[in-house]
Amino acid sequence: MNALTLWLEKYFLPLASKIGGQKHLVALRDAFIGTLPATMAGSVAVMLNAILRDLPPQFFDGYDGSTVPVIKQIITINGYVWNGTLAIAGLIFVFSWGYNIARAYGVNELSGGIVSTAASIAGITFSYSGGISGLKLDQATVDAINAAGNAAGWSATKTDITAAVWGWLPLNNLDANFFFTAMIIGFIATMIYVKLMLKDITIKLPDSVPPAVSKAFASIIPATVALYVVAIFYWLFSLIVPDMTFLQWLQKTIALPLLGLSQGFGAVILVTLFVQLFWFFGIHGPNVLAPILEGVFGVAQLENVNLFQKGGADLVLAEGYKWVRGSFDAYAWFGGSGGTIILILAILLFSKRKDYLAVGKLSVGPGIFNINEPIMFGLPIVLNPIMFIPFLLAPVVSVSIGYFATILGLVNPVSQQVAWVTPPFLMSFLATGADWRAPIVTLVAMIVSFLIWVPFVISANKMDPSLGEKAE
């Protein structure tokens, strides 16, 4: 064990430190964190609608929340909240992404967010055209369609209905589908802006001009250059791939395969292992791996949330993703990364060490709300050889239980974005759209984790807390 620890310290820790401190990855992590006020508000709205609209029909035949006074109004209000949050989550993220890149380089953050947003939006189609042919319509129907649809761009003949609409942004271009485009285009545009700002290629105004005005004018040249570079790219892309926008192409060729890869058992286990390895060396694993956890699994979760809003659990089961960001929290990271609330329970039941018991008692409260820093650094688990194996093994087993329970249809996929401080059992219940089977799966994962942790807690009783050697 000591040899393994020394090897990890020599080769893995330096790599982990470099990844954790890389400014672009830190900016990406902070960009996702920056969207939380909106995404959590939207998630609360979807969760309330799940409780008020979608859950009761499972127990009461004929229940329709949209016809019940007060309930109907609450559902409508929640819909408005969703419109301004999860429905445009990608748009919110792209501003946060540019803002945090600019902040990392010490230039005007507001302009960075604006450049990132403008550059990404520029490539979205503002028009729609399509139609249906081979129809047999009477003249009255044709006249009615033409009269009603003229302003909206609809027209009809006795055999065809066509639409040519301009001036709208489809929501499926602004929700979680927008994340991948924003990561690439937003990054390139903002970096062009940043580099020009750092080279001081700006408009300079006298000192007498208010700072807010000076800042805005200083950003004009860098922002204009960045947006024109991106616009030229979009134009060239349209010549090469005339049938789809860059967003659509990116979604088809990169985003969807990447999301599909994330659903494999191997990918899920690999992410779990790396999170635990980073934590073992005192580095916040979920933060380091935020580009994967949030950029891939998080995007899948937002897709599930939106599907649930449109059609409930059935639509998620039919078209959604099985394993998403919240699945880790529901089935493996109860008490925090590593499932440490189970370690606390094992310590309170089986540990005879005064130092372990003291830390365990102090860690119960935070652990219930998935805050595990007290046990992580107080016990400690960090760089503690005797805790290394269960700290890696227990989450892997827990994730496996949750993964196969979901894949086999024993429990609904996670379809709600629940605050990470939500206690276990309630977390999995709410995250799956109030599926009563989810807490049972969590309980099974906890029991197995407990059986993994207990032998190591008992073994720790034989170690002298001051010398780290076997007690006489």
Short description:
This protein has 472 residues and is mostly helical. It has helices spanning 2-21, 23-34, 36-54, 71-83, 89-105, 109-121, 139-149, 178-198, 211-218, 220-240, 246-262, 265-280, 285-288, 290-319, 325-331, 340-350, 354-368, 373-378, 385-407, 426-431, 437-460, and strands at 127-133, 154-156, 160-166.
What does this structure look like?
This protein is mostly helical and 472 residues long. The chain folds into three domains: 24-123 and 175-257, no CATH class; 127-168, no CATH class; 266-460, no CATH class. The chain is 67% helix and 4% strand. It contains 21 helices and three strands. It has helices at 2-21, 23-34, 36-54, 71-83, 89-105, 109-121, 139-149, 178-198, 211-218, 220-240, 246-262, 265-280, 285-288, 290-319, 325-331, 340-350, 354-368, 373-378, 385-407, 426-431, 437-460; strands at 127-133, 154-156, 160-166. The protein has a three-stranded antiparallel β-sheet with strand order 1-3-2. Helix 3 packs antiparallel against helix 4, helix 3 (36-54) packs parallel to helix 14 and helix 12 runs antiparallel to helix 19. The longest helix is centred in the middle third of the chain and has 30 residues, at 290-319.
